[in-house]
Design a protein that fits this description.
It comes from Methyloraptor flagellatus. The protein is α+β, with helices and mostly antiparallel strands and 205 residues long. It folds into 2 domains: 23-157, Electron Transport, Fmn-binding Protein, Chain A (Pnp Oxidase, Chain A, Roll); 166-202, no CATH class. The chain is built from 8 helices and 7 strands, in the order H-H-H-E-E-E-E-H-E-E-H-E-H-H-H. Strand 5 and strand 6 form a beta hairpin.
Length: 205
Amino acid sequence: MTRVTDLEALRALYGTVRERSRRKQLDRLDPHAKHIISLAPFVVIATAGRDGLGDATPRGDAPGFVTVEDDRTLLLPDRPGNNRLDTLQNLIERPGIGLLFLIPGMDETLRVNGTAEILADPALNARFAVDGKLPKTVLRITVREVYIHCAKALMRSRLWDPAAQIDRSIFPSMGEMMRDQIGVVEGVKTETQSEMVERYKQTLY
């Protein structure tokens, strides 16, 4: 097995970057990027902590839940989760952030890179209230790089193709998988998939 350990060897394998691919990277949000963000109900957030390990986490809400403040600023409310706070802790240690926006039915994606700060401001949180429930914090993201990513990955994966979807019943529930991984946690019931879905519906916001 041959490891690739330097940039020259890597570039020799892949060749030079195409001019259009190089030039497509923008330093701000243009009208097309803003349009994609306004329709995107899902984004993957990438961060890295002090230990150097990368972390990617999904965020989803109604289309346009990530708000465009201006050409170089995004606002992203943090909804209730598991309180591990992996992303937020990473951002305190290293503010670099990468965002991958997806729209169901569209194979192209949007990549946005920059830095983020965590804001805990009542007036700002109130802008993102849902059914009277406010996020605890909002990420303010300063945009540095923006580009549309080609459709090949989603085409290969057939991500939006109904014929490619699995039957969820081939997997145990999340609670059952966690029980197998870490054992029974005292006071915590092992939920069925339907029980978990119903509980999540009550705690989305």
